[in-house]
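Sample entry (202 residues):
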Amino acid sequence: MGEVTCGWPACSSKPEATLDGRGFCRIHFYDKAAKSLDEYRARLQQIEPAGTDRTAILKFLSELISKTTTLVAGAELLNPQQQDQFLTLSKSAAELYKRVLRHARIRRNMPILVYRETDSTGKQELTNTVDISKQGGCVATSGMWKTGEKIWIEKPGNQLRTLARVAWVKKVELSQFLMGFNILDCEDFWGLELALPKKKHR
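Predicted structure, serialized as tokens:
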């Protein structure tokens, strides 16, 4: 494992499992893993990961699931309370792993109308998507949007619309922004399930 003692500051216990390349005793492995899991969960509520960021998150979660499974398998090392803690931790990591996979982004450029839920003037911005996921998307925009506000996303022409919440806004150049949003009231607004190849029945 490399380390002679636990990688947690001031802990002289023997390392029993690694996480992010560092060895920890079982107690501090749990503390480190639980804290990192909470941080990733909070982060994923703000922005959907993509590219190397998504790969890094999946790698961490996969390692966490593997290490907790190994620790639980050595049941004689853990008391009943610790076993329950690690099983809960492993289950939470597995659920988050599935969520990251399920909400994978797809690069797709399509016209879209964006407007505020509370805008009585009916002012709309016609823009294009940068990428989409089953429960969200990212659009290029010249508008000033606030994180957390509710907006309408509408497909031009067929008037299919859905309520969404702004997850993040990033300025890319003068008067130009990228805006990520989470869809609130539609399971498959983009028609991604219909676009997936159907499984063959044997």
